[in-house]
């Protein structure tokens, strides 16, 4: 690690960090007392209020990739990066809350793969469970790598030492208290992250002369005025054609990747499933959508500020070089924050990275224990046995994440790597899921064959691209940047749909009597009725709350057009 990035921390900063870790480990110890069954460990006993699961829902996503990746996007591409929030997140979160959470929660499944088991049978379930488990290990590695990177910067330790120490901290509280420990720490981490990054944005804007000064400096930089308009976002997608760029953002990111991630990713859905009622489960992602709208102002804006203030970013960018955008927010923290605020900012980054990794690990241990071990390896044992398996799975996942962390280190912008993974795992799953939920004729064979075909299509497009998979890419198709990931995801979605329809037409469907609660048209609304819903205020009613959220995100898109 170059000394140029070493942060000037002192005892005041270390005290702030130490106080935070006392709270983190304390929450893990307290949560352990509430764990008496596997349901407590994996789903918090389905007992948490909507505001807790809602904040945990968004905090679980507000991890290393969200902070580092989107600040890197801000420095690299500018304002078009808001699409990852206003197009690529909020609409899908609202859809999840209104349409899909009643199915998840009402069916009493313990995971998304278990829903696949009931709808499509064991083969589709096994494919989904394995692909999800692999994805979580890879993404946990991203969070762990960036967490260790911060430890290395602060203390000057070797990266491998930092990896082990960072992993041990997350492992301790996740193993002790399970999902409850992860969720309550995520709520704490949400407030710490916001409190730590808001001063950085304010000080940074003041340094560049406010929003007007930032616009002038960005216009004069290599990025130019195109980085001050969210549309058409050619720099972000890598397309020369503005029309193709808009199609890529709306279809590839806004529909396939976004809906694929938010509606089928068990990391997020697991938080909502821990809620105490159907209405609370529906509100969890909707509540999370409101802070999600405003995260760009404390993540993307600092990246844009770093691109014009920090020499290590601006000099190579303006001279046609390739700066390490992943360090944009770290450089800005180094240059702008005094001691005390420096410690708070570092604490916020540590909180974000631990929230992301803990979310991946807690989702992995649930799927491994319930969907793989209990279903296919050791069946019909007492509940305590699977609780123990879950704790050991947590340990194993953490160890593997130390290895997968090395993959993330090869990417100068980890968001490219993440979007590639989402194209492989989430895009085809969304196609299978949405088709099966709304088309009762779809068969079990179509479920797993379509899923595999879509995944293969995404991999083929990525390998044929220019730089999506680094050294594995052949450069046959002239696709670069995140637009390449959008195309790969779109290919996965379309191929999955076509193959699923074709296979369905030549195979036998399941009897309709077995699809109640799994297919929209075969499920009476009374199945998912919440007895308490009629007593709720308008702002506690999922549909009305989602309507407010949709109007707000449309207004934001118009303002920053």
From TrEMBL:
GO terms for cellular component: plasma membrane. Keywords: Membrane, Transmembrane, Transmembrane helix. The keyword Nucleotide-binding does not apply. CDD domains: SLC5sbd_u2. Pfam families: SSF (PF00474). One of its GO terms (molecular function) is D-glucose:sodium symporter activity. The keyword ATP-binding does not apply. Its main location: membrane. The chain crosses the membrane at residues 12-31, 43-64, 84-105, 126-147, 159-180, 187-205, 243-263, 284-310, 341-368, 389-411, 417-439, 446-466, 486-508. It is found in: Membrane. It is a multi-pass membrane protein. NCBIfam families: sss. Belongs to the sodium:solute symporter (SSF) (TC 2.A.21) family. This is Solute:Na+ symporter, SSS family protein. It comes from Marmoricola endophyticus.
